[in-house]
Design brief:
The structure holds three protein chains of three kinds.
Chain A lengths: L14 E4 L4 E4 L8 H5 L7 H5 L6 H15 L6 H24 L21 H19 L8 E2 L2 E2 L5 H28 L1 H6 L8 E5 L11 E5 L5 E4 L2 H8 L9 H7 L6 H14 L9 H23 L16 E7 L4 E8 L5 E7 L3 H12 L10 H14 L12 E5 L5 E6 L2
Helix pairs in contact in A: 3-4, 4-5, 4-11, 5-6, 6-11, 10-11, 12-13
Chain B lengths: L5 E6 L3 H4 L4 H9 L4 E7 L5 H13 L4 E6 L2 H14 L7 E5 L1 H5 L5 H20 L7 E3 L5 E4 L3 H12 L4 E4 L14 E2 L4 E2 H14 L3 E4 L2 E9 L2 E8 L14 H5 L3 E3 L8 E3 L1 E2 L11 E2 L14 H5 L12 E7 L1 E4 L3 E3 L16 E3 H8 L20 E8 L15 H15 L4 E6 L9 H10 L3 E5 L2 E6 L4 E7 L4 E7 L1 E6 L1 E3 L3 H7 L27 E3 L9 H19 L4 E3 L4 E3 L9 H5 L5 E3 L5 E3 L9 H5 L5 E3 L4 H12 L4
Parallel strand pairs in B: 1-2, 1-3, 3-4, 6-7, 6-18, 7-10, 18-29, 20-27, 21-22, 21-27, 22-23
Antiparallel strand pairs in B: 5-30, 8-9, 11-12, 12-17, 13-14, 15-16, 19-28, 24-25, 25-26, 31-34, 32-33
Helix pairs in contact in B: 2-6, 3-4, 6-18, 7-8, 7-15, 11-12, 12-13
Chain C lengths: L5 E5 L6 H7 L4 H7 L1 E6 L7 H5 L6 E7 L5 H13 E7 H6 L36 E3 L6 H13 L46 H4 L15 H4 L17 H12 L7 H10 L4 H5 L18
Parallel strand pairs in C: 1-2, 1-3, 3-4, 4-5
Classes of the chains: A alpha+beta, B alpha/beta, C alpha/beta.
Chain lengths: ~425, ~650, ~300
């Protein structure tokens, strides 16, 4: 795949069998290898715009870049800006989980409505309404719907007026209502499937925890724990970066957060978590399908966090920006729906980017590990029906829309060293 | 749009064009160009016979467009358009292709030049093809003239305009008119007493029934356009009623404040209440608000107590005077370059190193020394004197790059004045070369040099050292190659002239430009020397560049003539080749409003840019800047340029 | 052509934002009710060239193409799609102008994970390799423009004329409430360092806002967020080079009088940082610049 910095699509792509290596792996689309070359010489203040258009989670990418810029300019955003950003971050997580839980690829063009994993409990139009509502919420908070644009080093360019704040609070309340309904529906229709899926993959976990040690869905310290829950790294960002860019497989995202933090950051989400723990057990938990249950719980948490942040937000445009110091180097890590994002930016005195690093570990990394463990190396020239079924089994565990009753087209492409297609299999 | 009946006329301009361009071939080639129904060449198209050829062809061939390939359109476009108009062709459907300045004068290969002339003429045909009939825009106008600057130039201009029957507002920022000329001892080369020839003009200006004199005043705002300028003038309070003041000097006697006297170039002191100089006009004392201990609130009040005639009024307030004028003449004069920039000469530091203007005051019979030349430092007589040319002039690296023009001649005059009163004195002049360009100046200077009473040393002064009781001047004689070191009692620096303080700000107020040295910029250095790029605003005198009194006076009259040209019109017409806005495309971004040097385009409340056609000069800056392509200049449209470019660059069929 | 009956979405080479913009559109259900969706490819491989070849010529009534073309394979795919589709919409800034990716065309070749196409070009707008019938601008297209496209293209009685751009014909400024200043532009400002006056035209304040050279239809969303327009909707009709035009406008706006006026004007214009990323953010590939041709410096 060329142009790595434009390539990523944040859900599971095709499965690529690399003939040269004779082993199965999933294409890791969100790699941002080319981003450093791309961003060099660009304006620092445009980085949040560029990285959010690399195919990763656009809200999280924007906020991670903004956080890195805060540090590069040694500017601590004022409280009001922090609340606004927190509400935006929560909506970003909500949007991400909603997409992941209810939609998959639409290459069979059977449309959105057929892909609702929760069956009749949540009517498809309600899902669409929720999705449009969270887009509208992001529009109000961040200026644009899919790609918010108001984050600047040291704060936000604009606040909410009285009307907008009222509108945002109303929408957040509705989003919470939908999240709670989704959690109820999931227990009724999805929990049984989670219990049946038996892929159990012990992996270290990387996640962000808040000041109380609970799972954070935005900022905080990055913590790394081993598969038994022992803390390996606690807050040392350099060590975290080293770990994350190393070869060892690890887990990020909802299940990693569950294994790393001391519970949910909000009360109703904590209650929902308690219900899941009663069913599946306490951390460490390595049952892959729990990711989906946890995602629904995080949907509740995100809505609660948005409601709480908006409760504390004052209307008006004043007090949103801290003064900037001379630019330097800044690194920041934030939680995203699918994992953890780390951005490091080095700026010249004139505010142009001299160097950058963007680390976007998401679910794909874990899927690779699962495929290695479960399927192992395969010979692309001799793919058996069993192998394809095994691959499908792994994918199904990670992608909730692939539950058996959903239409599902799995395509396996074998590519050679130069990326050219060697062969393709497609399950009817 | 032309219906394809275009006539083309190629001018030989004697041999000016014919020598390098085969005009006959141009005509023959153009005859076959689409839309052209007539083409001919002739010796002098601008002659009456040439014009008649155009008129005849328009009638005979029913031409609906004409191209004259001749000299630059700035020379004869009007001539040809007038001729065409006489026989009923809309004057804006005649275009000139410049095949002289842009072809024959700049090429050496007749073949290539002919080919280029053909292409340029074809391009003009393409333009004419899409030219529309346009009607000049009529504008009413005011009949008053504003003159800014009450020096000799401004006085000359004001009197000339007034004598032609138009009202003039003469604005001077100082308390008296007269300018620098009033400070001079005598004028070169005739050695007339400067004041004797100036004061009658000052009186004439002040007594003229058509001249309204506003001294101690400055123009603070200008709006409008040619023929219709609205100017706001701020008149500072003098606190003395000039009609009552009897010049008794009692007020100055009791005034406790002394400050440096401007008229004597700081060589003497004056009081806070003072008479600018003996022949000042208005003839009245003035209270200098900045020097006074305080008027509001009153802190002293002694002058009012002693004034027998009750001329002093502390309640006088600044006045804002608004006038509508049709033309403006700027004659704001010059200052001397600050001598403290010349540290190697001790300028502004050594009291016995003086400027040329200070020297004028020192030798002036009514100056601070009553004409008895003495060293400012210790009052001792001056027996040895050195004059230094080009003090700040002709020094592009460190000071001013230009020649100040008057210094060579006035230094000769000053050296002569010195020798007249100090026949045994030694006078040395350091010069780079002698530039005495005016009538009689060379003879004047050469007489002084030839008399050998003054020692002329060709070379630059490197350094001047103040030794207490004398100054040592270090230099080199570039003719003999020897180093020169002379001791003198006084050094006179022939300082560079610079635009008077505030010229740049004033240029902004009047929407005109200054040149790279800060002097007011003329519209064309040769053909439009007193005009500016803003119609109706003229410049004259030293404000435009260094010049002597006769040139300044001549420019004052020239500017007056240009102003009268406007004031005497029944109504003004304005070229209809102005910018237009396509409302379908304009998004109101406002870029054009900034690009416009004439304030002629504004974004209205509707969010659409609107052109004030009277202000618009058709320069096209807005059309070029317009990001949406919404603006075009009439008969200079993009489609025309595209066609012209194709005609210039396209292959021959 | 009668009302379209089928639609296909090929959003294979972009960041996914265009696909999502359609997914979250309020008009999606209306669109899917009105026409039969043939396929919705959101990434390379979702629909292969072999699969596209199986469709008849002009079988698909409307194809929405998102993302740039960037190598021989993507050019070949675009040409195949052209064959099977009656009408093609360049959906979003990448298909329209090359998009943000186009900035990579200016980077030294060695630093890119990108192989040039055979004709030596890198990122290109879709219209550089196939004929495009309609344009839906934006990065990603704003909801109102998507709604207009759905309404005019799928729900109307007649197809809009070829070449229709589903955006305003006037620039962003026409939708911006900011007022103009009368003072000249004397310094370039950056919105992160100096917060703009919320009521005054950003360009007038010295922020490089591409509003004047960019198609409206977005309700001036970025200036309303107190940040300059970045030009994602591309140039207006009749403007050939969006970046060059804003630079030209800037050259007209920056104005100093006085003896050193020209020097000071040059200083201000020289102080514009990252000119390519500022003036040509989405449009390098569609501009006169197109790509870097010399790695000498």
């Amino acid at each position: 795949m060329a142009a790595n910095w434009i390539s990523p699509v944040p859900h599971i792509a095709e499965i690529v069998l690399d003939k040269a290596e004779k082993r199965a792996r999933v294409a890791v689309r969100p790699s941002a290898d080319g981003i450093a070359a791309y961003l060099r010489g660009r304006l620092a203040e445009d980085v949040p715009l560029y990285v959010q258009r690399t195919g990763t989670d656009p809200v999280a990418a924007h906020l991670a870049a903004v956080a890195a810029l805060d540090n590069a300019y040694s500017a601590a955003p004022p409280e009001k800006a922090r609340h606004l950003r927190a509400a935006l971050a929560a909506c970003g997580i909500y949007y991400h989980h909603l997409l992941r839980l209810f939609f998959t690829r639409m290459n069979d063009a059977s449309g959105v409505s057929a892909l609702i994993a929760t069956g009749e409990a949540i009517p498809p139009p309600d899902v669409m309404t929720a999705l449009q509502r969270v887009r509208d919420e992001i529009t109000v908070l961040g200026g644009r719907g899919l790609t918010p644009e108001r984050g600047v080093p040291g704060g936000m360019t604009k606040g909410l007026n009285e009307d907008e704040l009222h509108q945002a609070r109303t929408m957040a309340a509705a989003l919470l209502e939908f999240a709670l309904a989704a959690e109820t529906a999931f227990r009724a229709h999805g929990a049984e499937w989670v219990r049946k899926e038996d892929i159990d993959l012990p992996l270290p976990a990387v996640a962000v925890v808040d000041e109380d040690g609970k799972s954070s869905l935005y900022t905080g310290e990055v913590r790394v724990v081993d598969p038994r829950g022992k803390v390996l790294i606690d807050g040392d960002l350099d060590a975290v970066v080293k770990f994350m860019t190393g070869d060892a497989p690890y887990r990020v995202g909802p299940l990693a957060r569950f294994n790393t933090g001391a519970g949910m950051p909000t009360p109703q989400a904590q209650k929902a978590l308690d219900r899941m723990v009663a069913d599946l057990g306490s951390p460490p938990l390595h049952r892959v399908a729990a990711i989906h249950w946890l995602s629904v719980i995080e949907l509740v948490a995100a809505a609660e966090l948005a409601v709480a942040a908006l409760d504390q937000l004052e209307p008006g445009d004043s007090g949103l920006r801290a003064p900037l110091s001379a630019p330097g180097t800044g690194t920041a890590a934030i939680a995203t729906g699918a994992g953890v994002m780390v951005q490091r930016l080095a700026l010249a005195a004139n505010g142009l980017v001299t160097d950058s690093q963007v680390i976007i570990p998401q679910l794909e990394r874990e899927v690779n590990a699962a495929l290695q463990t479960t399927v192992g190396d395969v010979d692309p020239e001799q793919m058996s029906a069993e192998t394809i079924a095994a691959i499908e089994g792994v994918i199904r565990a990670y992608q909730p829309a692939f539950v058996p009753e959903a239409p599902f087209l799995l395509r396996i492409t074998a590519r050679g060293e130069n990326g050219a297609t060697i062969a393709q299999w497609r399950k009817p | 749009m032309s219906q394809g009946r275009i006539g083309v006329f190629i001018c030989h301009c004697g041999m000016n064009i014919e020598e390098m361009v085969d005009t006959h071939r141009v005509a023959e080639t153009l005859k076959n160009y689409p839309g052209v129904v007539h083409a001919e060449d002739y010796d002098y198209m601008c002659s009456e016979i040439g014009q008649q050829k155009i008129r005849d062809a328009i009638v005979e061939h029913k031409l609906d467009g004409v191209v004259v390939a001749a000299c630059t359109p700035s020379m004869h476009q009007e001539t040809f358009r007038n001729a065409a108009e006489e026989v009923g062709l809309n004057r804006y459907r005649l275009e000139v292709a410049n095949i002289r300045e842009q072809v024959s004068w700049v090429h050496t290969d007749r073949e290539v030049a002919t080919e280029k002339a053909i292409r340029l003429t074809r391009a003009a045909v393409e333009k004419v093809r899409m030219d529309d009939d346009l009607t000049p825009i009529a504008v009413e106008h005011a009949t008053k003239c504003l003159v800014v600057g009450g020096g000799i130039t401004g006085i000359q201009a004001a009197v000339n305009v007034a004598n032609n029957g138009y009202d003039v507002i003469l604005v001077e920022k100082n308390p008296s008119i007269g300018g620098h000329m009033a400070q001079l001892s005598v004028t070169f080369p005739t050695l007339d007493c400067a004041q004797c020839i100036l004061t009658p003009r000052m009186v004439e200006a002040s007594r003229h029934p058509r001249i309204k004199l506003l001294t101690y005043s400055e123009v603070i705002d200008v709006s409008g356009y040619i023929g219709n300028y609205t100017v706001k003038i701020r008149k500072k309070p003098t606190y003395v009623d000039p009609d009552k003041c009897n010049l008794c000097n009692k007020c100055a006697e009791v005034c406790p404040v002394s400050v440096s006297e401007e008229f004597n170039e700081g060589l003497s002191q004056r009081k806070a209440i003072y008479l600018p100089f003996a022949q000042a006009i208005p003839s009245s004392y003035v209270l200098d608000e900045d020097a006074c201990l305080g008027v509001k609130p009153l802190r002293c009040g002694r002058c009012q107590e002693v004034c027998d005639v009750g001329a002093i009024n502390y309640d006088m307030a600044p006045e804002i005077i608004t006038e509508k004028v049709g033309a403006i003449i700027l004659a704001t004069g010059y200052d001397l370059y600050d001598p403290s920039n010349l540290t190697e000469y001790g300028g502004g530091k050594y009291p016995d190193v003086v400027t040329s203007l200070q020297f004028e005051r020192m030798v002036h019979p009514s100056g601070p020394m009553k004409g008895d030349l003495r060293r400012p430092s210790d009052g001792r007589p001056v027996n040895r004197i050195a004059f230094v040319h080009c003090a700040g002039s002709r020094d592009p690296e460190r000071h001013k790059p230009y020649c100040s023009r008057i210094c060579c001649t006035y230094t000769a005059k000053q050296a002569l004045l010195f020798k007249k009163s100090h026949s045994d004195g030694e006078a040395s002049v350091f010069y780079i070369d002698i530039r005495t360009d005016g009538k009689g100046y060379e003879e004047f200077a050469q007489n002084i040099i030839a008399s050998q009473r003054v020692r002329y040393i060709r070379g630059k002064v490197a350094k001047i050292v103040d030794e207490g009781d004398h100054l040592t001047v270090w230099g080199a004689d570039t003719l003999s190659g020897e180093r020169v070191e002379i001791d003198v009692d006084l050094v006179v620096l022939a300082m560079a002239v610079v635009p008077s303080k505030g010229t740049e700000e004033m240029a902004k107020t009047f929407h005109i430009n200054v040149d790279e040295n800060g002097f007011l910029k003329e519209a064309h250095p040769k053909l439009r020397p007193v005009e500016t790029t803003t119609a109706g605003v003229f410049i004259a005198g030293m404000a435009q560049g260094p010049k002597d009194i006769p040139d300044s006076v001549a420019q004052g009259s020239a500017a007056a003539a240009k102003a009268i040209e406007i004031l005497s019109q029944k109504e003004l017409t304005h070229s209809p080749e102005v910018a237009t806005v396509n409302e379908e495309l304009c998004s109101g971004c406002g870029v054009c409003t900034r690009a416009c040097p004439y304030d002629a385009i504004k974004v209205e409340r509707s969010g659409i840019a609107v052109v004030n056609e009277i202000l618009c000069s058709g320069c096209g800056a807005c059309a070029a800047a317009c990001p949406t392509g919404a603006i075009e200049v009439k008969n200079d449209r993009r489609v025309q340029y595209a066609a012209m470019l194709a005609a210039v660059l396209g292959r021959d069929e | 052509m009668p009302k379209p009956k089928s639609v296909a979405i090929y959003a294979a080479n972009g960041c996914g934002g265009c696909s999502q913009s359609l997914l979250v559109s309020d008009r999606l259900s209306a669109l899917l009710d009105a026409v039969h969706p043939v396929f919705w490819a959101t990434q390379p491989g979702d629909v292969t060239q072999a699969e596209i070849e199986q469709y008849d010529d002009r079988e698909i009534d409307i194809l929405l193409y998102a993302g740039p073309v960037y190598d021989d394979e993507s050019i070949a795919t675009a040409q195949l799609l052209r064959r099977v589709a009656k009408r093609i919409v360049a959906y979003g800034a990448c298909a329209h102008l090359g998009g943000l990716c186009g900035l990579a065309n200016l980077a030294p070749e060695a630093t890119l994970h990108l192989a040039p196409s055979k004709d030596g070009r890198f990122i290109q707008p879709l219209s550089a390799v196939i004929a495009v019938d309609y344009i839906l601008p934006g990065c990603p297209p704003p909801p109102a423009m998507i709604a207009r496209m759905v309404d005019e293209l799928f729900l109307g009685d007649e197809l809009p004329p070829a070449g229709t751009v589903f955006a305003a014909t006037k620039a962003v400024c026409a939708e911006c409430d900011r007022r103009h200043l009368a003072t000249p532009l004397t310094a370039i400002k950056r919105f992160h360092a100096t917060p703009p006056d919320p009521e005054v035209c950003l360009l007038d304040q010295g922020y490089i806002c591409l509003g004047p050279v960019t198609r409206g239809g977005c309700a001036a969303v970025c200036p309303r967020s107190d940040r300059p327009c970045t030009g994602c909707a591309g140039p207006l009709a009749g403007v050939h080079d969006q970046g060059g035009t804003i630079l030209h406008a800037l050259a007209s706006l920056v104005r100093f009088t006085g003896p050193d006026g020209q020097r000071r004007e040059r200083e201000v214009l020289d102080s514009i940082p990252d000119i390519a990323g500022t003036a040509y953010k989405y449009s390098v590939a569609a501009s006169a610049l197109k790509r870097r041709v010399n790695d000498g410096s």
